Here is the input.
Amino acid sequence: MTAEPPSDPPRAPDIDENGVDREQIRAMIRLAPEQRLRLVEEFVESALEIRERNAPRPVR
Amino acid sequence: MPRARFAEILRLLAENEVEFVVVGMTAGILHGAPVTTVDLDLVHRRSPDNVRRLLRVLGEIDATYRHDPRGLRPAESHLAGPGHQLLTTRLGDLDCLGAIDQDRRYEDLLPLTVEMALSEGRSVHVLSLPALIEAKERAGRPKDLAALPVLRATLDELKRRS
Here is the structure.
């Protein structure tokens, strides 16, 4: 078995002193305002779907 | 819970010439804050004409009070006052606020907004990020304070870009 060559370490994330990921902010800022809203809509939609799928079923 | 189609609600309101200001975390998102929310908060102008235009849109999206099991629909008298109308619609939860932040009305907030373009040539007024941060600081509730680090960092990134 041949050993894999060592890969470059990942770049350190840009997290500020409050724990906020600055790169996420920069990615959002690169979008147009309506695109920012659509991204959140998709996220909320996905979260709601999972919640609905796992909602407690009524006891019979 | 209904689907979240906030951009669609904004488009309908703009198309029907409803005068309003987007506030709350949706305003933060529109400015680029990587946060999420399950409702759209807006402060509407409480003039009779505007309330009628708003009611027309609310009827179109089947708005009812989300904490009222009777499926009560908002009326002119509700929207003409300073109270908060917490609604559910077929396009998502929508809070129509007569005033926020120590009785600030639409007319008080409008100078503190930026105009943002939507698709199809429409635009909406969104509370500026500094004004949103100040409102959250004044509100001082745990949920408002929790949002501040991300909002402040977003403002900082926007300043660096400009």
